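Journal club prep — side note

Before the paper discussion, L.F. wants everyone to see what a predicted structure for a comparable chain looks like in C-alpha cell form. Sequence:
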Amino acid sequence: MELLTRCWDKEEEARPSMQEVVQDLNNIAEGWKSNAVSGRTPEEVHTSLQA
C-alpha cells in the first residue's frame, strides 16, 4: 500500500503531514463505500487492485 510505504520510507522523503494521511484515509474510505455499493467483496477489490 502506498500510504504505508510512504510513512516508512523516511530516507526518500519526509513523512507525510497529518493532513495528507487523513486525505489518503478518506480516499480509501470513499473507495470502500463505492465498492460496497457495487456489491463487490473485499477480496474481489483486492484482486482488482493488484491486477
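L.F.'s comment for the group: The chain has a mean pLDDT of 73. Keep this in mind when we get to the figures.
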